[in-house]
Amino acid sequence: MAIINSQTNFRVLQWAKLKEKAIRDKQKLFIVEGYHLVSEANKTAHLKEIITTEKSKSFDVPTYQVTQDVMEKLSSLATPTKLIGICRRKEATLYGDSILLVDQIHHPGNLGTIIRSAVAFDVDTIVVNNSVDVYNQKVIQASQGMIFHINVVKKPIAPLILELKAQDYQIIGTDVKECTSLRTIQSRKKRAVLLGNEGEGLGDELLNMCDVRVNIEMNERCESLNVGVAAGIVLYCLNS
Amino acid sequence: MAIINSQTNFRVLQWAKLKEKAIRDKQKLFIVEGYHLVSEANKTAHLKEIITTEKSKSFDVPTYQVTQDVMEKLSSLATPTKLIGICRRKEATLYGDSILLVDQIHHPGNLGTIIRSAVAFDVDTIVVNNSVDVYNQKVIQASQGMIFHINVVKKPIAPLILELKAQDYQIIGTDVKECTSLRTIQSRKKRAVLLGNEGEGLGDELLNMCDVRVNIEMNERCESLNVGVAAGIVLYCLNS
């Protein structure tokens, strides 16, 4: 295998472009770094090809060996890894019974953490809108590779809620006031949980579309929880 | 009030030193930035003095007006705020009924989020050891100022557990295997919950000191949750 040693090699230039959201969206591809994430991508057939600074071929996909210089151009990490995977997006049209709808989550760590919890608590599909890009590397890292184990869909949420209601999904909003306590809520098997912005929560338009609004009772000295924590608690409790 | 305009003014040099953990520990002081955090510090009498680029005196503590240059030297934020508070540490010796013991949490965002959830779910005292400094600015920011509403203690955990056991506290460890399910655990009113490292969890020494080990049941595709999320779920469920 020839080693790619030029930062201006045409493949290198193509891969590097995947750092841009617009290119990722157009090509339906994204980058992951490090053995753990590449290995998770491989388990679920998201892995298209790998780029490595080492000789060994660890995965059964097209493999490109590159120099450290080239790896530094492709990596987004302070300390570049030895292994990068180019992954395909997959969007299934069947959403399953348990759906998470995410609107205006802007912090990559929060969105990644939410994806990780969603897989832990049996969510089938996560729909993301107006938020940090799901295929941003920081999101993927914070998800600990769980992004490969859940159906991820990018589309506007309000029209989708109308469709879900027609299909008899229960729409559950998270709010801090005028709510049903999470400890007493009766949830249905087919449900969609709505999560809103870190600072502002859900906007009125989406809140008004909910069948039920749920809140997490807490000490009055604390105004709200971190959105990733709130999501984890709600998903865990509804999953019982 | 004279405006302090020199980055080498003796007060400025003293304040700037509080960016170092060793100095914070020695002087039992720490810095917070921005109106929200200063205001939280003021509510609970942690606020010692404030430093501001503006003329108005908003809090009833000694106030020092400084130039933008000086503020930039003191601030740790990319966009310096107009208001900094110098705060006193307080460590109460009475720990209350609900205690959280934190060992080897290294990510400031995680520790801050855990402090926020601890206040939300009525924890009285958080004991931190071998972790990122609680008075690190990123921790305080992620706590959303909740650090002022909980007793924070820095001390080794293993000897403390022995003392707590002698006082009849139930010691609850969080683990991913050989555990009691969080859904069935019987917790006592006097309890201490133990949280361990992001990647490794609790070490054997501490795990072996627990009266009960609890785990959060989850889909087998997901190995573990973010530690801040796990802490939130455990504290919420035990607080019912």
Describe this structure in words.
2 copies of one chain form a homodimer. Chain A is an alpha/beta fold and 240 residues long. In chain A, 32% of the residues lie in helices and 21% in strands. In chain A, the strands form 2 sheets. A 7-stranded parallel beta sheet of chain A has the order 7-6-5-10-8-11-9. The first copy, chain A, has a 4-stranded mixed beta sheet with strand order 1-4-2-3. In chain A, helix 5 (108-120) links the parallel strand 5 (98-103) and strand 6. The longest helix of chain A is centred in the middle third of the chain and has 13 residues, at 108-120. Chain A is elongated. The mean pLDDT of chain A is 94. Chains A and B meet through helix 5 and helix 9 of A and helix 5 and helix 9 of B.
Topology, element by element:
The structure is a homodimer of 240-residue chains.
Chain A: H1 10-17, H2 21-27, E1 29-33, H3 35-43, E2 47-52, E3 63-65, H4 68-74, E4 83-88, E5 98-103, H5 108-120, E6 125-129, H6 137-142, E7 151-154, H7 157-166, E8 170-174, E9 180-181, E10 191-195, H8 204-208, E11 212-215, H9 227-238
Parallel strand pairs in A: 2-3, 5-6, 5-10, 6-7, 8-10, 8-11, 9-11
Antiparallel strand pairs in A: 1-4, 2-4
